[in-house]
Structure formats: C-alpha cells, structure tokens
Here is the input.
Amino acid sequence: MSTIFAQEKNIKIVEEKIANRLALYAINGSETDYDVMITVSGTNFRQSKGKPRLVRVPQASKVHLKNLILTKGKFPQYTYELVVNDSLSRRALRKPFTNIKIKPKKLITIYVTENCPTCDSIIKPLNESKYKFTSIILAERPEVKEGLKRVIPKIDSIQKPIVSLGGKIFPKVENYDQLMVELNKD
Here is the structure.
C-alpha cells in the first residue's frame, strides 16, 4: 500500500491493491466535510468510462473513490487530478465510509493513577471518539510517575486521571466534556 498526498484541504489519496484491481480511497484527516472528485489518466489499466462525480468525504473518514482494473503482467502508471470543495453540494454521491482516528489540535495524554474510579469517564468516550490519544498507567511506568511528582507532589493521593493537552497538565479535568472544552480552547 502506498500513499500519495494531495496538496489541498487535508484530503489524502491512498491506493490499495486488491487482486487485479487498484482501489483509490480518499482519507479526510480534518474536522470538516469535503466533496472530492478524482479524474485518473495513464496507461496499463482500465477504468469506468462514466463522467467523474463529486463524492462526499465526511470528517475523520475513509471513502472509496475509484477502481482501476490492471492490465495483466504490466505495472500501472497513472496521474490523477483531484478537485476538493468545502462548499458541499446536495448532488454529491454519499458512499459508505469508514471512520478513522485523527490527530487532535493538541496532543492528548491521560495518566491513569492507581486509585482512579473516574478514569473510565474519560477513557471510554475517548476510545469511541475520532481523536487519537495516549493512555499511560502510572503503576506500570514508575519513571513517568517520578517525572510527574515534580509537577504534582501529592500524585499518590489523587483519585482522578491526570490530563495533559499539548504538554500542559490540566488537573481540574474530570470527564470527557471538560476535556473537549479544554481541547477546543485556543
């Protein structure tokens, strides 16, 4: 699987080889929906002769755009033209999509303390959300715990998770909603 980057609007084109076909997917790594149209030209493959249409690519998702049928025994050489619109059209095709995890504006790290009854109130919704995050259990990583003791001296008595956003520690964040408020602040 190889990756080709588009220069526009956080849309990335990825190709996957499946038997004698090459499937082209659009990956939207942003928090905005886009309409995408791809036109492929080249040699050593066949494709549908239909007119290219706009396809809706929702935020944080992967959508199949096009199949290229490979010529047996030859390597396909192609170029594509990508049109990306952030003004959404009602006429755009809405194909099935796969949700993906994206990087948030600020890196999210959750430090799980030993006596933490409220840790699931942050970690479970984060697992179900579109954001990538890191969870560190302090009991398993004593070197990280020692580093945090310099910032938070009473770390052994804390009964809630310690949240770090972009390298800043937020001791008052206790649930997912508060985490999202802090994440979206500028």
